[in-house]
From TrEMBL:
Domain Carrier: 13-90
Protein name (record): Carrier domain-containing protein
InterPro entries: ACP-like_sf, PP-bd_ACP
Top-level taxon: Bacteria
């Protein structure tokens, strides 16, 4: 199967900061390959230490704090599952927790 090649525009599904941060933390993601909702983060090279670093970096760059009950393997399973937690926090959902 041929990988999807990213165009010059960023996916409207998530923020440019989110995608850029993911790309920096996914060592097995080839440059120019488009990210999809169902891409497994661990298949793209994210490990347990990388998960912690990714979380800290995302919280800092996006100005949110991921609630403790969302710090699960399911949250960090795929691009879409992670954005599913972060997206509402960015858009002021009631479950949003301000950063420390």
């Amino acid at each position: 199967m041929r990988p999807h090649v990213a165009s010059d525009r960023v996916s409207p599904r998530w923020s440019p900061e989110f995608e850029q941060t993911l790309r920096e933390h996914l060592p097995d993601l080839d440059e120019g390959v488009e990210l999809a909702d169902d891409d497994a983060l661990f298949d793209l090279g994210l490990d347990s230490f990388g998960t912690v670093d990714l979380m800290v970096t995302l919280e800092g760059r996006l100005g949110v704090s991921i609630p403790d009950d969302k710090l699960t393997a399911e949250t960090f399973a795929t691009v879409g599952s992670l954005w599913g937690v972060l997206g509402p926090l960015l858009h002021g959902a009631p479950s949003a927790v301000p950063p420390d």
